[in-house]
C-alpha cells in the first residue's frame, strides 16, 4: 500500500470501505440475523398499504345511477342530485353491494366531490409532516422505539377510525395515521439500508 498524502482523501475513504467489507466477510457477512431482521422490517411495512389505500374502500362513492331518492325511487342520477340539494329528497337509497362512509353518512353529489378527496389529502399532508418529524425523532430517540410507537399509534387510530360516528371524526383520525405512516416509511427505509452495510 502506498503512503497517504493530504490529497488522498478519496483513496482513504475507498480503502476504509474496503477494510470494512473485508471485516464483514470475516465475521460472516449477510447472515441469518440480517435475513430475519430484513423480513421483520418488511412485514412492518405491509400495514402501510392498508392505511394508504383504505379510503379507496372506506370512502367508495356510488355512481350516479346507483343512488336514488327513497321517497321517489324513480328519481336517480342528476335528477337525484338536484332533488337532494334543493331539499325535495330527504333520504337516499343505494343499489350498491357495499357500505362506505359515503353511503353511511350520505355524503352525496357536490359534497362527495369536496369531502371524499379530503380524506386522502389530510392523510398525505400528515405523511409529509411525519416524514420530517419522525426522521428527527428516530435519530434522536432511536429507530426501534420510534417504530414501535408509530405502529401502536397507527393501530389505535385505525381501530378507533373504524368505529367513527361521523365524517369529522373519520378525517381527524386520518391525521395521526398519516403522520405516523410518513415517519415510519422514512426510518424503515433507513433501517433496511443499515442492514446492508
In short:
This protein has 197 residues and is mainly alpha-helical. 72% of the residues lie in helices and 3% in strands. The protein is built from seven helices and two strands, in the order ααβαβαααα.
**What is the spatial order of strands in the main beta sheet?**
1-2
**How many runs of DSSP E, i.e. beta strands?**
2
Main sheet? Answer: 2 strands, antiparallel
| Strand fraction | under 5%
Instruction: Please tell me the overall pLDDT.
Output: 84
| Rough outline | elongated
The percent range for helix content is: over 70%
Tally of helical segments: 7
Q: Unreliable runs, pLDDT <50, ≥5 residues?
A: none
Oligomeric state of this protein = single chain
- The ordered H/E elements are HHEHEHHHH
What does the radius of gyration come to? Answer: 26 Å
Q: Gap between N and C termini, in Å?
A: 25 Å
Class by helix and strand content? mainly alpha
Amino acid at each position: 500500500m502506498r503512503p497517504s498524502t493530504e490529497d488522498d482523501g478519496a483513496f482513504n475513504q475507498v480503502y476504509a470501505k474496503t477494510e470494512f467489507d473485508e471485516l464483514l466477510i470475516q465475521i460472516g457477512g449477510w447472515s441469518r440475523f440480517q435475513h430475519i431482521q430484513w423480513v421483520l422490517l418488511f412485514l412492518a411495512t405491509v400495514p402501510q398499504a392498508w392505511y394508504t389505500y383504505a379510503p379507496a374502500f372506506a370512502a367508495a362513492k356510488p355512481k350516479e345511477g346507483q343512488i336514488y331518492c327513497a321517497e321517489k325511487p324513480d328519481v336517480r342520477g342528476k335528477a337525484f342530485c338536484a332533488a337532494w340539494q334543493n331539499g325535495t329528497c330527504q333520504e337516499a337509497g343505494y343499489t350498491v353491494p357495499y357500505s362506505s362512509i359515503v353511503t353511511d353518512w350520505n355524503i352525496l353529489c357536490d359534497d362527495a366531490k369536496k369531502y371524499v378527496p379530503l380524506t386522502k389529502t389530510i392523510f398525505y399532508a400528515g405523511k409529509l409532516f411525519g416524514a420530517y418529524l419522525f426522521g428527527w425523532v428516530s435519530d434522536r430517540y432511536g429507530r426501534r422505539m420510534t417504530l414501535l410507537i408509530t405502529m401502536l399509534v397507527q393501530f389505535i387510530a385505525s381501530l378507533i377510525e373504524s368505529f367513527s360516528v361521523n365524517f369529522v371524526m373519520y378525517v381527524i383520525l386520518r391525521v395521526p395515521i398519516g403522520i405516523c405512516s410518513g415517519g415510519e416509511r422514512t426510518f424503515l427505509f433507513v433501517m433496511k439500508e443499515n442492514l446492508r452495510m
